[in-house]
Amino acid sequence: MDELKTDCRHFNGDRPCKPHKQSGVVCSSCDEHYAPIKTRILITKLAAMGDVLRTTSLLPAIHRRWPGASITWVTAPSSVPLVAGNPLVDRTIPFNGSLPLELATEHFHVVLNPDAAPDSCALAQSADADLRVGFAFDRRGAPVPLSAGAASWLEMGVRDDLKKANERTYQDMMAEILEVPYLREPPQLPITPEEDAVGRTLRAAHPPEPGQSVIGLNTGAGGRWRFKRWTDEGFTELITRLGQDGHRVFLLGGPEEVERNGRLAAASDGVAIDTGCDNTVGQFAGIVGACDVVLTGDTLAMHVAIARSVPVVVLFGPTSLHEIDVFDRGERLAPDLDCLVCYLPDCDVRPHCMESLSVDRVHQALLGLVGAAAG
Predict the structure, then answer these.
(1) Nearest 5°: CA angle at 331, between 186 and 339?
(2) Rounded CA separation 80/13 (Å)
(3) Which residue in 288, 199, 277, 213 sits closest to 248, CA to CA?
(4) Are residues 107 and 205 in the same domain?
(5) Residue ranges of the alpha helices (H) in 158-278?
């Protein structure tokens, strides 16, 4: 009987491994592909989707601290596509509200939980592990910070004044929480050739004028903070100007933007193309990747653009500009208002933050990135 190397990262147990399928090699004679797992790591980071994607920035740092690690990532079902194709993650498990069966019996050397949310903490506490890093859970259902960085993040999460005063990026703070050597790597979002082709096909069908660009406008920003979304009037005027410049506009969004994007496309005299609001995460990433520049609020589309290396202009109001690192791939715009970074769901200030961002300023920022990309 062949001696099975069950400690190899390629070993599946219930089916042949990839090297065997490709070349017929068997465990007892396999040296070239044999990759013994030195550390079994569990990451519990469930939501929101943008936070999950930007946390992938830390994967290289995690592997630097624990060379030869095998990483299992538990996340919300909606976020699985953001992690599952990442070559630095060995396994992705969707969390559906209870302890996954795999975690009920497996042992991990390390559990990494950068999130103080109750479900993430409960998962991290329930897993069988030698070491927990980040946050755990106490018997009262409260998060327990396990490092100085986690304690600072926890306090900032419950104090708006500290959140407003913060000038560190999310990734920098997460690296401190997880105690890993972070070197400012951007997030990663690998997609399939078929998903990438969605964007390329769309661009080929709706090209810009010769020498001009495709500019993606992400018109939504989720439902939690409605003033992360720029105004209809701003988008309408901007589309007109971009059309006069000879650029093509791709309207980006999700289910909440169906009506808005349809309305903007209909009023654009053919300049703006509604790319659909029911794309999968991978298809959406393919469309974003087909753009030369993307305009967005502080939302998932921003993280996707950064991960796809697409220059981005980001509009900020109620959330923190300083927490967002665009990795030298764009520009962050915020109005000159004292009430920014309020994290309030509504606002009685008029003009509010998004109304205070002029079309002139946004247009010039986009043209600057288009020019830089062309140069």
Answers:
(1) 110
(2) 22
(3) 213
(4) no
(5) 160-165, 170-178, 193-205, 232-245, 258-266
Do 172 and 235 fall within a single domain? no
Number of H helices, E strands in the chain: 15, 12
Task: Check residue 270 and give left, alpha or beta (phi > 0: left; psi -120 to 50: alpha).
Answer: left
Chain segment 261-278, per-residue pLDDT in tens: 999 999 999 999 999 999
Indicate the pairing of strand 214-218 with strand 248-252: parallel
Structurally, how many domains does the chain consist of? Answer: 3
Q: How many CB atoms lie within 10 A of CB 214?
A: 22
pTM of the entire predicted model: 0.92
Residue 185, in any domain of the structure: no
Do 221 and 311 lie in a common domain?
yes
What is the C-alpha separation between 162 and 170, in angstroms, rounded? 14
Beta strands in 98-154 (DSSP E): 107-113, 128-137, 143-145
pLDDT along the chain (375 residues), means of 10: 78 85 86 86 94 98 96 97 96 91 91 96 94 94 94 93 93 97 95 98 95 95 72 96 96 95 96 97 98 96 97 91 94 83 72 83 95 70
What pLDDT sits at residue 284?
98
- The dihedral region occupied by 222, where left means phi > 0, alpha psi between -120 and 50, and beta the remainder, is left
3-state secondary structure of 50: helix
Query: Tokens representing 17?
Result: 């491994």
Task: Determine the structural domain holding residue 289 and report its residue range.
Answer: 200-374
Q: Are residues 228 and 368 in the same domain?
A: yes
Q: Are residues 108 and 100 in contact, defined by beta-carbon separation less than 8 angstroms?
A: no
Report yes or no on 190 lying in a domain: no
Predicted pLDDT at 315 = 94
Q: What confidence score (pLDDT) does residue 120 get?
A: 95
